Amino acid sequence: MATIIDGKAISQQIKDEVKEKVAELNSQGKEVCLAVIQVGDNPASTVYVGNKKKACAYVGIKSLAYELPGETSEEELLSLVRELNGKEDVHGILVQLPLPDHIDEDKVIQAIVPEKDVDGFHPQSVGALSIGQPGFVSCTPAGIIQLLKRSGIEIDGKECVIIGRSNIVGKPMAQLLLRENGTVTVCHSHTKNIKEVTRRADILVVAIGRAKMVDASYIKEGAVVIDVGMDRDENGKLCGDVDFEDVKEKAGAITPVPGGVGPMTIAMLMYNCLCAGSMHR
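Below the sequence we write its predicted structure tokens.
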């Protein structure tokens, strides 16, 4: 029976550490500030933005909310980003994705100056990660590394397999596991004999966006299984990409959905904001 990795508890530890450091900065008269921009009223985005504001309030980071109508033009959004780039009292800028179809996401991400790119999506941040230089790291993969480390799971020398090659999770996850001396394989929709590959994994990270796709037949006995998925099952209930009930009997450790990777993403965003605020002094 697998150990359940508690993302809520570990994210709380990180938020409490950030809160302490933010209080130290505040006592020196320095206030950390995050600007969050949402375009349109995508219900999922509204929930995420709300959670980010709550987390900011908890750790003592000031948050500015820019809620723009769905018909906002690309130029108007870029102009707001440029204005926030120039504000010395704004340390982090976050544009909630997805954006409406008429706005080019890449253009918007590239408009944010790298030192305020707390999401870690700017090409400069991604490039820094790939060559081992300092820079912001995408919050979900960074959170997964913390989940593993704070659960006492050794990465060094382990076979690490990732299912999914997205720019937000799969690719940066591979870079971070490499940085920790894992032996990394990335699987995707064109991978042949995928179960043969995943059954080698000591650590399996699943980020494909298909509800309960990965069952026990993908898993090596005793493996650590990290489920990044946020899906709905046939009854509309929140679930992951991993069939939790099937896999938990075989895995050594597993993250639940909800309560696993999700809370870590926001905790690492708070950590990135703290770093941005500390850097700007």
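The chain has ten helices and eleven strands.
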